[in-house]
Amino acid sequence: MRKKLIEFRNVSFRYGDEQPWVLKNVTFEIYESEWIAIIGHNGSGKSTIAKLLNGLLFPQEGEILINGKQVNQESIWDIRKEVGMVFQNPDNQFVGTTVRDDVAFGMENRGIPRYEMIKRIDETLTAVGMQDYRMTEPHRLSGGQKQRVAIASVLAISPQVLILDEATAMLDPKGRTEIMHTVSNVQEENDLSLITITHDLQEVVQAERVIVMNDGEIWDEATPREIFSKQEELRKIGLDVPFIAILASELKQAGISITDEPLN
Ligand code: ADP
Asked: CA-based angle 96:90:188, to the nearest 5?
């Protein structure tokens, strides 16, 4: 059986005593090497979940466990070795003057020996297809290339969980496809648990399980296929269904089957 890696137990969160609750009694589990997509309308609480997972925020109620260890002020440095995050805007994520320095930065902060750093820079840039750019200044890269470097920087820390919070939102369709291809390769090779927070339901198709958020609560948790079969309900909570799912469903209604497994 797969090992439980992340547990949210009855987590509620608000951004201040006078503020409304933005997460209400949220409970879910994520297993080792599982790919989870979190979807939901704007403001439904997705990014807040990501920040709680990384110890950027702490819940007022309930608890969050990573590898059985509670996320709190004392544990955040250990937790951040386990949980890597890539955000939406690649330009906000660079600290180094070259791609190589950038990947090195997170490792320096964690006291990883130099010989090990050199090895990991090489391995992770190769994994994301950016080895040829190691001496390039980050601002010279395209959006997609920047996100690939951001992923390499996170992988260099050898996390068990990789969270992509709208990491493809600023990319064009080609950049998006390339990133998702890279991500699915590195996930498999490194046996990572992957959490993709996204507006792009096309990306969700690749996940094993989907958590749908609505107004700070879990609205549903199921396979992509099950989720996409609820098109009308998804529209009601402000989500659009990918063209392919609509097409598959319309063809099915017309009695035409394009494939037995149109969504997975
Ligand atoms: P999503 O990622 O699904 O768009 P968020 O987790 O970013 O949702 O936001 C959930 C709710 O929390 C929203 O109502 C948002 O306005 C509010 N919120 C987010 N960040 C802050 C903040 N720093 N201070 C106050 N409210 C916030």
From this structure: 95
Write down the residue that tokens 């394009």 correspond to: 258
Residue nearest to atom 7 of ligand 1 (CA): 47
- Extract the runs of DSSP E, i.e. beta strands, from 127-256: 161-165, 193-197, 209-214, 217-222
Gap from CA of 22 to ligand 1 centroid (Å): 7
Atom index in ligand 1 nearest the CA of residue 16 equals 25
Check if the beta carbon of residue 36 is closer than 8 Å to that of residue 211. Answer: yes
Residue with CA closest to ligand 1 atom 1: 43
Atom of ligand 1 nearest to the CA of 40: 3
Complete domains list, the chain, with CATH: 4-95+159-222 (3.40.50.300), 225-264 (no CATH)
* Residue closest by Cα to atom 12 of ligand 1: 22
Show pLDDT as tens, one digit a residue, over the chain (264 residues): 789 999 999 999 999 999 999 999 999 999 999 999 999 999 999 999 999 998 999 999 999 999 999 999 999 988 988 999 998 887 777 788 899 999 998 888 778 899 999 999 999 999 889 999 999 999 999 988 998 999 999 999 889 999 999 988 888 888 888 888 888 888 888 889 999 998 777 778 889 999 999 999 999 999 998 988 888 898 888 887 777 677 777 777 777 765 545 444
Taking the C-alpha atoms of residue 36 and residue 19, their distance in angstroms, rounded to an integer, is 29
Q: How far apart are CA 153 and CA 140, in angstroms?
A: 17
Residues with CB under 6 A from ligand 1: 15, 19, 22, 40, 42-48
